[in-house]
Amino acid sequence: MKNWYKEDYSFKIAVISVGTNGKPENCRNGHEVGDTYVCEYGCPEGFCSKSMLKLFSLMEAVRAGGDLSNLLRGATKHEGEFTCSDGVVVFRLEAIKNDL
Predict the structure, then answer these.
(1) Is 44 helix (H, G, I), strand (E, B) or coil?
(2) pLDDT reported for residue 60
(3) Is residue 86 part of a domain?
């Protein structure tokens, strides 16, 4: 596959908590505290596809000039936390403006 489009943003996704006891077996995808993923448009390898459904809309909002603080409680413009759809894993999302 050839990536011909230059993306405005890169996104860093970090696992900050898993379940109430931090054990990865609580997560169907096996995410562990400290796991980090980086992507621009597509789903990063190894990242939960179910969580990507929630993440993608946040990424699109940032790309369109939106502010994560309007979408996620306690967030700043380009950084915030969201919980997976199963309510087990908490991720931190950081949008990083690319030099074009």
Answers:
(1) coil
(2) 95
(3) yes
pTM, full prediction: 0.90
> Which residue type sits at 78?
H
Q: Helix or strand or coil: residue 28?
A: coil
| Residues of the domain holding 41 | 9-97
Q: Can you tell me the distance from the alpha carbon of 31 to that of 60, in angstroms, rounded to the nearest whole number?
A: 24
- CA distances 2 to 5, 8, 9, 55, 94, Å, are 9, 17, 18, 23, 25
Domain count, the chain: 1
pLDDT digits (tens, 9 = 90+) for 32-81: 999 999 999 989 999 999 999 999 999 999 999 999 999 998 899 999 99
Pairwise CA distance, residues 93 & 19, whole Å = 18
